[in-house]
């Protein structure tokens, strides 16, 4: 490709990042991710229609209505554990197209007092997705509040859910070199003129407690998400001040460990994470151990992580699937069963996706985390 064709194939965000890096030097992977996903004009969530078969990726609530329904019943149970408060926040972080909240509210109709008491709060930065959420929730007869930041959520007893939200929060990456750890940065490859990974010049701060020499070797990568930790801390502060419980579902690992999990997806296909920023969804595995530690330090009771498959089965996935199949034709019943299989089978989403819950310590253990 000649220079002009090369420049024409760049996304507007790539142009801007290249200009910025030329002026100021390499940026962190976290800053790259934050811009690629959240840039107010060209960020992926602001400018694309990411979710669903027509989009770039599909999530559990989009695959099966049972996912949101079981979570709705879990929330009603948690509300009763809280003493059935007459007013509380029902918060979803990153609601996408609003499908899970719609399913939650439909299942919760079993307890009309729950729905009457709930102030639905949606934390969403994308204007496009807010419009979709508003349309979808119209029939549910709730008047949602939208928040840009966690700090904008009203102080009140709260039930909080987040599905595939933490995986899109920016991560820092550190690379082990002979003399210790250096931050992995995004710079410009002098030969191709394209974005490329480079090593930061200064050692990583000792305060991060990165794995020791005996636990890692040169070339290893360790990921650290300050943003995910801050969200976990903010959630637990709200729960400890006002009461309530949170449920976080995402793909990731139980224990902090080494490995590069940064990935980009477009039209259901993996892409190199530094190609086409703004056009691709960029995510990383969630470090559940790190979240659990933050929550415990903030005084919350932590349950899990358990696998998504086990969690859903404990909440009655198969029973609900069979109930839904009753009276349906063969094709519809197959679709229901295959949706349930995709969200819970270990070889599909059941094992890689984990579920963790944080609670005000005054509450009993939540449903779904222990075999009865
Ligand atoms: N929970 C949905 C969508 C997951 S995609 C589902 O399961 O289908 C991630 C969602 O988080 C999108 O709605 C995106 O716009 C939102 N989001 C990403 N980063 C955010 C941030 N920092 N603050 C608020 N919302 C964010």
Provide a concise account of the structure shown.
The chain is 38% helix and 23% strand. With 372 residues, it is of the alpha/beta class.
Give structural attributes.
single chain; 372 residues; alpha/beta; 8-stranded mixed sheet; 15 helices; globular; binds S-adenosyl-L-homocysteine
How many angstroms does the end-to-end distance come to? 62 Å
Tell the overall outline. Answer: globular
Biggest sheet, in brief? 8 strands, mixed
- The fraction of residues in strands falls at 15-25%
Return residue spans where pLDDT drops below 50 for at least 5 consecutive residues: none
Whole-number radius of gyration? 21 Å
Number of strands: 16
Helix content: 25-40%
Structural class: alpha/beta
Could you say which small molecules are bound to this protein?
S-adenosyl-L-homocysteine
Q: How many helices does DSSP assign?
A: 15
Mean pLDDT: 95
Report on the structure:
This protein has 372 residues and is of the alpha/beta class. It has helices at residues 3-8, 12-24, 29-38, 44-47, 60-63, 65-81, 99-107, 112-117, 127-137, 226-242, 288-297, 308-314, 317-325, 330-344, 346-350, and strands spanning 27-28, 88-93, 118-123, 145-147, 158-163, 172-177, 180-188, 195-203, 221-224, 244-253, 263-266, 269-271, 281-283, 286-287, 301-307, 353-359. The chain has 15 helices and 16 strands. The strands form three sheets. Strands 2, 3, 4, 5, 10, 14, 15 and 16 form an eight-stranded mixed beta sheet that branches. Strands 1, 6, 7, 8 and 9 form a five-stranded antiparallel beta sheet that branches. It has a three-stranded antiparallel beta sheet with strand order 12-11-13. It starts with a helix and ends in a 13-residue tail after the last strand. The model has no long low-confidence stretch (mean pLDDT 95). Bound molecules: S-adenosyl-L-homocysteine.
């Amino acid at each position: 490709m000649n220079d002009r064709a090369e420049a024409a194939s760049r996304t507007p965000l790539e142009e801007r990042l290249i200009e910025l890096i030329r002026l100021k030097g390499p940026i962190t992977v976290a800053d790259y991710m934050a811009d690629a996903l959240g840039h107010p004009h060209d960020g992926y969530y602001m400018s694309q229609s990411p979710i669903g078969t027509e989009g770039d990726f599909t999530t559990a609530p989009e695959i099966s209505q049972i996912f949101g329904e079981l979570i709705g019943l879990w929330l009603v149970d948690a509300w009763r554990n809280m003493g059935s408060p007459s007013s509380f926040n029902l918060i979803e972080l990153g609601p996408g197209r609003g499908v899970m909240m719609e399913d939650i509210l439909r299942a919760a109709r079993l307890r009309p007092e729950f729905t009457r008491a709930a102030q639905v709060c949606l934390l969403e930065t994308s204007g496009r997705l807010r419009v979709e959420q508003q349309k979808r929730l119209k029939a549910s007869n709730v008047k949602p509040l939208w928040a840009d930041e966690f700090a904008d959520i009203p102080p009140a007893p709260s039930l909080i859910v987040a599905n595939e939200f933490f995986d899109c929060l920016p991560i820092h990456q550190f690379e082990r070199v002979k003399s210790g750890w250096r931050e992995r940065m995004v710079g410009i490859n002098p030969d191709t003129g394209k974005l490329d990974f480079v090593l930061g010049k200064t050692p990583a701060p000792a305060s991060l407690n990165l794995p020791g020499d005996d636990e890692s070797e040169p070339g290893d990568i360790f990921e650290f998400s300050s943003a995910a930790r801050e969200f976990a801390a903010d959630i637990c502060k709200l729960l400890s001040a006002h009461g309530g419980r949170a449920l976080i579902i995402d793909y990731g690992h139980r224990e902090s460990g080494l490995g590069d999990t940064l990935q980009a997806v477009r039209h259901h296909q993996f892409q190199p994470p530094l190609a086409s920023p703004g056009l691709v969804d960029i995510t990383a595995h969630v470090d559940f151990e790190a979240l659990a530690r933050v929550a415990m330090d903030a005084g919350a009771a932590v349950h899990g992580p358990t696998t998504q498959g086990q969690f859903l089965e404990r909440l009655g996935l198969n029973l609900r699937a069979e109930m839904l199949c009753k009276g349906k034709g063969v094709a519809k019943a197959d679709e229901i069963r295959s949706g349930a299989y995709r969200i819970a089978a270990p070889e599909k989403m059941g094992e890689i996706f984990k579920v963790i819950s944080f609670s005000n310590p005054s509450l009993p253990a939540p449903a779904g985390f222990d075999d009865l």
